[in-house]
Design brief:
The complex is a heterodimer. Chain A is mainly alpha-helical. Chain A has 4 helices and 2 strands, in the order ααααββ. Chain B is about 45% helix and about 10% strand. Classes of the chains: A mainly alpha, B alpha/beta.
Chain lengths: ~140, ~200
Protein backbone atom coordinates (compact mmCIF):
# COMPACT_ATOMS: atom_id res chain seq x y z
CA UNK A 1 0.00 0.00 0.00
CA UNK A 2 1.17 3.51 -0.67
CA UNK A 3 0.10 6.32 1.56
CA UNK A 4 0.06 10.04 1.04
CA UNK A 5 -0.67 12.82 3.49
CA UNK A 6 -4.36 13.67 3.69
CA UNK A 7 -4.77 17.47 3.48
CA UNK A 8 -6.62 17.70 6.80
CA UNK A 9 -3.68 16.41 8.81
CA UNK A 10 -1.71 19.08 10.61
CA UNK A 11 1.78 17.66 10.62
CA UNK A 12 3.00 20.13 13.22
CA UNK A 13 0.51 18.64 15.66
CA UNK A 14 2.06 15.18 15.37
CA UNK A 15 4.14 14.11 18.34
CA UNK A 16 7.88 13.70 18.07
CA UNK A 17 9.39 10.28 17.54
CA UNK A 18 11.40 8.84 20.38
CA UNK A 19 14.84 7.67 19.33
CA UNK A 20 16.80 4.79 20.71
CA UNK A 21 20.44 4.04 21.09
CA UNK A 22 20.05 0.33 20.39
CA UNK A 23 20.37 -0.21 24.12
CA UNK A 24 19.40 -3.30 26.09
CA UNK A 25 16.46 -5.35 24.89
CA UNK A 26 14.79 -5.27 28.29
CA UNK A 27 15.40 -2.40 30.67
CA UNK A 28 14.34 -4.36 33.76
CA UNK A 29 14.13 -8.07 34.59
CA UNK A 30 10.34 -7.94 34.95
CA UNK A 31 10.01 -6.83 31.31
CA UNK A 32 11.84 -9.95 30.22
CA UNK A 33 9.68 -12.00 32.58
CA UNK A 34 6.43 -10.64 31.12
CA UNK A 35 7.71 -11.23 27.61
CA UNK A 36 8.84 -14.79 28.29
CA UNK A 37 5.60 -15.74 30.09
CA UNK A 38 3.61 -14.60 27.06
CA UNK A 39 5.72 -16.49 24.53
CA UNK A 40 5.69 -19.54 26.77
CA UNK A 41 1.90 -19.59 27.27
CA UNK A 42 1.40 -19.19 23.54
CA UNK A 43 3.75 -22.10 22.88
CA UNK A 44 1.59 -24.21 25.22
CA UNK A 45 -1.45 -23.33 23.15
CA UNK A 46 -3.09 -21.28 25.92
CA UNK A 47 -3.90 -18.57 23.37
CA UNK A 48 -3.27 -17.89 19.71
CA UNK A 49 -0.87 -15.19 18.66
CA UNK A 50 -3.79 -13.33 17.08
CA UNK A 51 -5.56 -13.27 20.45
CA UNK A 52 -2.40 -11.92 22.03
CA UNK A 53 -1.88 -9.24 19.38
CA UNK A 54 -5.49 -8.12 19.81
CA UNK A 55 -5.14 -7.97 23.60
CA UNK A 56 -1.95 -5.93 23.36
CA UNK A 57 -3.39 -3.62 20.71
CA UNK A 58 -6.45 -2.97 22.90
CA UNK A 59 -4.23 -2.15 25.88
CA UNK A 60 -2.07 0.23 23.83
CA UNK A 61 -5.12 1.94 22.37
CA UNK A 62 -6.61 2.37 25.85
CA UNK A 63 -3.33 3.86 27.08
CA UNK A 64 -3.35 6.38 24.24
CA UNK A 65 -6.95 7.27 24.99
CA UNK A 66 -6.15 7.85 28.66
CA UNK A 67 -3.45 10.22 27.50
CA UNK A 68 -0.77 8.01 29.04
CA UNK A 69 2.69 8.71 27.69
CA UNK A 70 3.14 6.16 24.94
CA UNK A 71 6.63 6.90 23.71
CA UNK A 72 7.53 3.23 23.88
CA UNK A 73 9.26 3.45 27.25
CA UNK A 74 6.24 2.13 29.14
CA UNK A 75 5.48 -0.47 26.53
CA UNK A 76 6.02 -3.47 28.77
CA UNK A 77 3.69 -2.04 31.40
CA UNK A 78 0.97 -2.18 28.76
CA UNK A 79 2.23 -5.61 27.73
CA UNK A 80 1.93 -6.89 31.31
CA UNK A 81 -1.58 -5.41 31.71
CA UNK A 82 -2.66 -7.12 28.47
CA UNK A 83 -1.21 -10.42 29.69
CA UNK A 84 -3.02 -10.17 33.05
CA UNK A 85 -6.32 -9.56 31.29
CA UNK A 86 -5.83 -12.36 28.77
CA UNK A 87 -4.92 -14.83 31.52
CA UNK A 88 -7.96 -13.74 33.57
CA UNK A 89 -10.16 -13.93 30.48
CA UNK A 90 -8.99 -17.51 29.88
CA UNK A 91 -9.93 -18.26 33.51
CA UNK A 92 -6.39 -19.40 34.26
CA UNK A 93 -5.88 -16.90 37.04
CA UNK A 94 -8.86 -14.88 38.23
CA UNK A 95 -8.09 -11.23 38.87
CA UNK A 96 -8.78 -11.61 42.61
CA UNK A 97 -6.25 -14.38 42.97
CA UNK A 98 -3.62 -12.27 41.25
CA UNK A 99 -4.33 -9.25 43.48
CA UNK A 100 -4.01 -11.46 46.56
CA UNK A 101 -0.67 -12.75 45.36
CA UNK A 102 0.55 -9.23 44.56
CA UNK A 103 -0.24 -8.22 48.14
CA UNK A 104 1.56 -11.28 49.49
CA UNK A 105 4.70 -10.50 47.51
CA UNK A 106 4.48 -6.88 48.54
CA UNK A 107 4.24 -7.81 52.23
CA UNK A 108 7.07 -10.29 51.87
CA UNK A 109 9.24 -7.73 50.09
CA UNK A 110 8.65 -5.09 52.75
CA UNK A 111 9.33 -7.53 55.57
CA UNK A 112 12.67 -8.48 54.04
CA UNK A 113 15.78 -6.62 55.20
CA UNK A 114 17.95 -4.97 52.57
CA UNK A 115 20.35 -7.30 50.83
CA UNK A 116 18.35 -10.46 51.56
CA UNK A 117 16.46 -12.37 48.87
CA UNK A 118 12.71 -11.83 49.01
CA UNK A 119 10.73 -15.01 49.66
CA UNK A 120 7.09 -15.82 50.15
CA UNK A 121 6.23 -17.68 53.33
CA UNK A 122 6.36 -21.34 52.29
CA UNK A 123 3.04 -23.04 52.03
CA UNK A 124 1.92 -26.47 51.02
CA UNK A 125 2.33 -27.21 47.35
CA UNK A 126 3.89 -23.91 46.49
CA UNK A 127 7.48 -23.77 45.31
CA UNK A 128 9.64 -21.34 47.15
CA UNK A 129 9.84 -18.13 45.16
CA UNK A 130 13.06 -16.17 45.38
CA UNK A 131 13.85 -12.76 44.06
CA UNK A 132 17.41 -11.44 43.84
CA UNK A 133 18.43 -9.07 46.66
CA UNK A 134 16.95 -5.61 46.63
CA UNK A 135 19.00 -2.68 45.44
CA UNK A 136 19.82 -0.18 48.13
CA UNK B 1 1.33 4.09 49.21
CA UNK B 2 3.42 5.40 46.36
CA UNK B 3 5.41 2.97 44.29
CA UNK B 4 8.64 4.46 45.56
CA UNK B 5 7.93 3.19 49.04
CA UNK B 6 7.53 -0.36 47.82
CA UNK B 7 10.66 -2.46 47.88
CA UNK B 8 9.44 -4.04 44.65
CA UNK B 9 8.01 -1.56 42.16
CA UNK B 10 4.49 -1.94 40.73
CA UNK B 11 5.09 -3.86 37.52
CA UNK B 12 7.96 -5.92 38.96
CA UNK B 13 5.66 -6.97 41.79
CA UNK B 14 2.82 -7.84 39.43
CA UNK B 15 5.06 -9.79 37.05
CA UNK B 16 6.48 -11.74 40.00
CA UNK B 17 2.98 -12.49 41.34
CA UNK B 18 1.75 -13.60 37.92
CA UNK B 19 4.75 -15.80 37.28
CA UNK B 20 4.58 -17.47 40.69
CA UNK B 21 0.90 -18.35 40.19
CA UNK B 22 1.47 -19.69 36.68
CA UNK B 23 4.41 -21.77 37.90
CA UNK B 24 2.32 -23.23 40.72
CA UNK B 25 -0.39 -24.18 38.27
CA UNK B 26 2.19 -25.83 36.05
CA UNK B 27 1.44 -23.47 33.16
CA UNK B 28 4.95 -22.12 32.80
CA UNK B 29 8.32 -23.61 33.58
CA UNK B 30 10.81 -21.16 35.15
CA UNK B 31 13.70 -22.84 33.36
CA UNK B 32 11.97 -22.42 29.99
CA UNK B 33 11.40 -18.75 30.79
CA UNK B 34 15.09 -18.24 31.52
CA UNK B 35 16.03 -19.93 28.25
CA UNK B 36 13.63 -17.76 26.30
CA UNK B 37 14.98 -14.59 27.87
CA UNK B 38 18.55 -15.63 27.19
CA UNK B 39 17.70 -16.40 23.57
CA UNK B 40 16.16 -13.01 22.95
CA UNK B 41 18.76 -11.08 24.91
CA UNK B 42 21.82 -12.67 23.43
CA UNK B 43 21.13 -14.96 20.49
CA UNK B 44 18.39 -13.50 18.33
CA UNK B 45 18.91 -10.07 16.91
CA UNK B 46 19.39 -7.99 13.81
CA UNK B 47 22.55 -9.97 12.98
CA UNK B 48 20.24 -12.77 11.80
CA UNK B 49 18.51 -10.46 9.35
CA UNK B 50 21.83 -9.00 8.24
CA UNK B 51 23.04 -12.46 7.21
CA UNK B 52 19.93 -12.94 5.11
CA UNK B 53 20.32 -9.56 3.42
CA UNK B 54 24.02 -10.21 2.77
CA UNK B 55 23.29 -13.57 1.14
CA UNK B 56 20.55 -12.03 -0.99
CA UNK B 57 23.04 -9.42 -2.20
CA UNK B 58 25.75 -11.97 -2.89
CA UNK B 59 23.69 -14.84 -4.30
CA UNK B 60 21.08 -14.06 -7.01
CA UNK B 61 19.46 -17.50 -6.67
CA UNK B 62 18.96 -16.95 -2.94
CA UNK B 63 17.60 -13.47 -3.58
CA UNK B 64 15.02 -14.96 -5.95
CA UNK B 65 13.96 -17.60 -3.40
CA UNK B 66 13.78 -14.95 -0.68
CA UNK B 67 11.50 -12.68 -2.66
CA UNK B 68 9.28 -15.56 -3.78
CA UNK B 69 8.90 -17.37 -0.45
CA UNK B 70 10.57 -15.51 2.37
CA UNK B 71 9.40 -17.86 5.12
CA UNK B 72 11.09 -20.84 3.44
CA UNK B 73 14.23 -18.94 2.39
CA UNK B 74 14.70 -17.57 5.92
CA UNK B 75 14.14 -21.04 7.38
CA UNK B 76 17.20 -22.18 5.37
CA UNK B 77 19.20 -20.33 8.03
CA UNK B 78 17.24 -22.03 10.79
CA UNK B 79 15.40 -18.81 11.68
CA UNK B 80 11.82 -19.88 12.30
CA UNK B 81 9.03 -17.84 13.83
CA UNK B 82 7.44 -19.27 16.96
CA UNK B 83 4.20 -17.42 16.45
CA UNK B 84 3.29 -19.19 13.22
CA UNK B 85 3.72 -16.00 11.24
CA UNK B 86 4.58 -15.76 7.56
CA UNK B 87 7.47 -13.62 6.42
CA UNK B 88 7.47 -11.32 3.41
CA UNK B 89 10.61 -9.63 2.12
CA UNK B 90 10.20 -6.21 0.51
CA UNK B 91 12.79 -5.18 -2.03
CA UNK B 92 14.00 -1.58 -2.08
CA UNK B 93 14.99 -0.19 -5.46
CA UNK B 94 16.17 3.17 -6.77
CA UNK B 95 12.51 4.06 -7.26
CA UNK B 96 10.83 2.39 -4.27
CA UNK B 97 11.47 2.55 -0.53
CA UNK B 98 9.58 0.22 1.80
CA UNK B 99 8.86 1.07 5.43
CA UNK B 100 7.51 -1.39 8.01
CA UNK B 101 5.25 -0.48 10.90
CA UNK B 102 2.71 -2.16 13.14
CA UNK B 103 -0.03 0.40 13.62
CA UNK B 104 -1.98 -1.59 16.23
CA UNK B 105 0.66 -3.01 18.51
CA UNK B 106 4.22 -3.90 17.63
CA UNK B 107 4.28 -7.03 15.48
CA UNK B 108 7.86 -7.41 14.37
CA UNK B 109 9.95 -10.14 12.70
CA UNK B 110 11.55 -11.43 15.89
CA UNK B 111 13.48 -14.38 14.41
CA UNK B 112 15.41 -12.10 12.07
CA UNK B 113 15.54 -8.77 13.93
CA UNK B 114 15.18 -9.70 17.60
CA UNK B 115 12.87 -7.49 19.65
CA UNK B 116 11.79 -4.10 18.34
CA UNK B 117 13.50 -0.85 19.35
CA UNK B 118 11.69 1.55 21.65
CA UNK B 119 10.72 3.98 18.90
CA UNK B 120 9.09 1.21 16.83
CA UNK B 121 6.77 0.50 19.77
CA UNK B 122 5.92 4.16 20.35
CA UNK B 123 2.53 5.64 19.52
CA UNK B 124 4.03 8.43 17.36
CA UNK B 125 5.82 5.97 15.07
CA UNK B 126 2.81 3.65 14.89
CA UNK B 127 0.44 6.50 14.13
CA UNK B 128 2.58 8.78 12.01
CA UNK B 129 4.22 6.32 9.66
CA UNK B 130 1.00 5.69 7.75
CA UNK B 131 0.01 9.36 7.74
CA UNK B 132 3.34 10.95 6.90
CA UNK B 133 5.98 8.36 6.01
CA UNK B 134 8.28 10.91 4.37
CA UNK B 135 8.16 13.11 7.45
CA UNK B 136 8.94 10.16 9.70
CA UNK B 137 11.84 9.11 7.49
CA UNK B 138 13.17 12.67 7.44
CA UNK B 139 12.97 12.83 11.22
CA UNK B 140 14.81 9.54 11.49
CA UNK B 141 17.54 10.98 9.31
CA UNK B 142 16.63 9.47 5.97
CA UNK B 143 15.24 12.01 3.50
CA UNK B 144 13.54 10.40 0.49
CA UNK B 145 13.75 12.22 -2.86
CA UNK B 146 10.40 13.26 -4.36
CA UNK B 147 10.71 10.89 -7.30
CA UNK B 148 11.09 7.86 -5.04
CA UNK B 149 7.86 6.13 -4.02
CA UNK B 150 7.42 5.26 -0.35
CA UNK B 151 5.40 2.14 0.46
CA UNK B 152 4.21 1.54 4.01
CA UNK B 153 3.52 -2.01 5.20
CA UNK B 154 1.42 -2.66 8.28
CA UNK B 155 2.49 -5.85 10.09
CA UNK B 156 0.00 -8.23 11.65
CA UNK B 157 0.08 -11.22 13.97
CA UNK B 158 0.22 -13.48 10.90
CA UNK B 159 2.42 -11.48 8.54
CA UNK B 160 5.80 -9.90 9.25
CA UNK B 161 7.97 -7.90 6.90
CA UNK B 162 11.69 -7.55 6.36
CA UNK B 163 13.07 -4.88 4.06
CA UNK B 164 15.80 -5.90 1.63
CA UNK B 165 17.78 -2.66 1.39
CA UNK B 166 19.66 -1.58 -1.73
CA UNK B 167 23.22 -2.81 -1.83
CA UNK B 168 25.43 0.24 -1.59
CA UNK B 169 27.87 1.13 -4.35
CA UNK B 170 31.49 0.37 -3.58
CA UNK B 171 30.82 -3.07 -2.11
CA UNK B 172 31.53 -5.05 -5.26
CA UNK B 173 33.44 -8.22 -4.52
CA UNK B 174 32.77 -8.12 -0.76
CA UNK B 175 32.21 -11.42 1.02
CA UNK B 176 28.90 -12.25 2.66
CA UNK B 177 30.43 -11.68 6.10
CA UNK B 178 31.74 -8.28 5.10
CA UNK B 179 28.37 -7.34 3.64
CA UNK B 180 26.50 -8.52 6.75
CA UNK B 181 28.67 -6.19 8.85
CA UNK B 182 27.23 -3.06 7.25
CA UNK B 183 23.54 -4.04 7.26
CA UNK B 184 21.71 -2.23 10.07
CA UNK B 185 18.51 -2.99 11.91
CA UNK B 186 17.02 0.35 10.85
CA UNK B 187 17.71 -0.45 7.20
CA UNK B 188 15.80 -3.73 7.53
CA UNK B 189 12.83 -1.89 9.09
CA UNK B 190 13.10 0.52 6.17
CA UNK B 191 13.85 3.76 7.99
CA UNK B 192 17.47 3.98 6.84
CA UNK B 193 19.62 2.98 3.91
CA UNK B 194 22.78 0.91 4.04
CA UNK B 195 25.96 2.88 3.48
CA UNK B 196 29.38 1.53 2.77
CA UNK B 197 31.76 3.09 5.27
CA UNK B 198 34.38 5.16 3.43
CA UNK B 199 37.40 3.59 5.02
CA UNK B 200 36.15 0.04 4.45
CA UNK B 201 35.88 0.48 0.70
CA UNK B 202 38.39 -1.64 -1.03
Amino acid sequence: MTTSIPPEVDLRALPALPRDDAGPVFKAPWEAQAFAITVSLHARGVFTWREWADALAAELAAATERGAPDDGTRYYEHWLAALEKLVAGKKLIPGQELERRVDEWDAAARATPHGKPIELPTRQGSPKGTIPPKFS
Amino acid sequence: MSEHERPLSGPALRAKALESLLVEKGLVDPKALDELIDTYETKVGPRNGARIVARAWADPAYRKRLLEDATAAIAEFGFIGRQGEDMVVLENTRKVRNVVVCTLCSCYPWPVLGLPPVWYKSAPYRARTVIDPRGVLRELGSEVPEDVEVRVWDSTAELRYLVLPERPAGTEGWSEDELAEIVTRDAMIGVAQVKAPERSKR
